[in-house]
Amino acid sequence: SVSSIVPESCLLIVVGLLVGGLIKGVGEKPPILKSDIFFLFLLPPIILDAGYFLPLRPFTENLGTILIFAVVGTLWNAFFLGGLMYAVCQLGGPGLNHIGLLANLLFGSIISAVDPVAVLAVFEEIHINELLHILVFGESLLNDAVTVVLYHLFEEFASFEQVTILDIILGFLSFFVVSLGGVLVGVIYGVIAAFTSRFTSHIRVIEPLFVFLYSYMAYLSAELFHLSGIMALIAAGVVMRPYVEANISHKSHTTIKYFLKMWSSVSETLIFIFLGVSTVAGHHYWNWTFVISTLFFCLIARVLGVLVLTWFINKFRIVKLTPKDQFIIAYGGLRGAIAFSLGYLLDYKHFGMRDMFLTAIITVIFFTVFVQGMTIRPLVDLLAVKKKQETKRSINEEIHTQFLDHLLTGIEDICGHYGHHHWKDKLNRFNKKYVKKCLIAGERSKEPQLIAFYHKMEMKQAIELVESGGIGKIPSAVSTVSIQNINPQTLPLERVLPALSKDKEEEIRKILRTNLQKTRQRLRSYNRHTLVADPYEEAWNQMLLRRQKARQLEQKMNNYLTVPAHKVDSPTMSRARIGSDPLAYEPKEDSENLPIITIDPASPQSPESVDLMSEEPKGCSGLPPSPEEDEEGLVMRVKEPSSPGTDDVFTPGTSDSPSNQRMLRCLSDPGPRPEPEEGEPFIPKGQ
Questions:
Q1: 341 Cβ contact list (under 8 Å, min separation 6)
Q2: What whole-number distance in Å separates Cα of residue 305 and Cα of residue 329?
Q3: Domain 2-385: top CATH class
Q4: What residue stretches are annotated with the Cation/H+ exchanger transmembrane domain (predicted)?
């Protein structure tokens, strides 16, 4: 019942205090947690376990936020705390006056970093949601580079007589060397481990050994050159895991998983017990002003840093960090054994106040682990902060998540925006095309695992049927369905579905996750900047322009080239006009090509009712005129409908010759109507 209220780390520290007090009471000298033992043997298993099983998707999606908290937040904490502690030392009396600015900045850099061991111990027990867990834990992992740089920088500066501007610039550049150098070392060893696991198919027993060996070599190589060993371990674990798990056997995978968990758990237990023992055994120098000021300014710096950085980060995040999230991030900034070990490494020659620093560091560690670690669980329940989902995501959810990734990648390609989905897709395609072929053995790098797994299961079932004597001979290519048809079995009354083991279900999940919905790998990526021109697009544009010009020309002709037609007379008035002045409707001498309109005055049809668009003059069709056409004069023809797919605007027809168009224009223009003069013959209305 005690462990449900008090975190395990607190109980272990209490056990260490009791053990240390017991050893001291017997008269022996209790052992102290030496920095070499801590950094070389106890810390690497915890970091490797965290890096190898790091939830990669939430980590990469929130990498920008994590880096801002880890780099800018740690720098802010170190300089804010160091500057204020220097002011306290100057005002604190004779016992603190001799502590200079560099010593205070070094103390600030040691105490400002969030500890991954303490965060893991507390946050895994309260089951906080994935976002907050990865933000605080990712910050505690990645701030190691800043802590290492600041620690070595101020330690070197303490031995200098004078610090120049060049030293400060080189110190700033060393941050990039330490962080990126550690990552590079980890990537190199991760690739070597993956390549080695390709050739271990005949020695399955020692497969887990390569994972531990290369990871530890990455850590030692980084520490050898004063690079970030934690960054190297994380990079090695992240890089090697997908390729190593594709090569090694399932038993080796189980061995790696449980051995890492056990190793990290033992290291964590020893670290917290040794913290308690070292507290009893170490030399302490208590100064109320220094210790209380350190504790107070640590809390103030953490809260101010989180509030200011979150205000800036929320301007760029889609999922904003709420005030509750900010409170948990600020409250979860726990300190641990890394700060104690770094303080223990200080040299008495340059830092005579080392005992006071260690006392203040232990006080801050105990306060954060005991007070904040014990109260964070009830605060999470009180604030109703979203907790982690205990159930595993279904295969359906994983498939839809991958489908949405493809969808967002396509949207980014169409928009021309290169977001993290775009670069993740590029990296996956490069990985599948080149890296997997080099680092994964056999046909696994080429054939989709889903098909290979199906063949494997089918063959296994066929072999079991043969061994059981169910059938004598099986054809070479036969499926399990056909096998069941050949030898039908009576089903039991209640059919029970076979329960998959957890390992088998996990294997199926992995196969589906890595091989389903890979259609984009075979398609060309679409980008609006590299569109291929449509060969028919220009022709269509020209066609539309010509149609538009033809309509505009027709409209202008109707508006400007013709005289408004007179009011249509009744058929009686038209016959009267033709009968009174037949010469006005006779053809002129020079109009040989124009049609002769012969109209019977008694006919009810008027010239205005003739469809001039359907008229053809005699001889236009290229055939000799028949005698019937000679007698009829004007021939009326029905216009044939155009065939589908042809353009009636600029497809040449029989009536599109210039002479026909001129004739149509003349016929559509009756000319100006003369005013009636006196003496002009006119038929009265009543006639």
A1: 33, 35, 38, 39
A2: 11
A3: mainly alpha
A4: 6-380
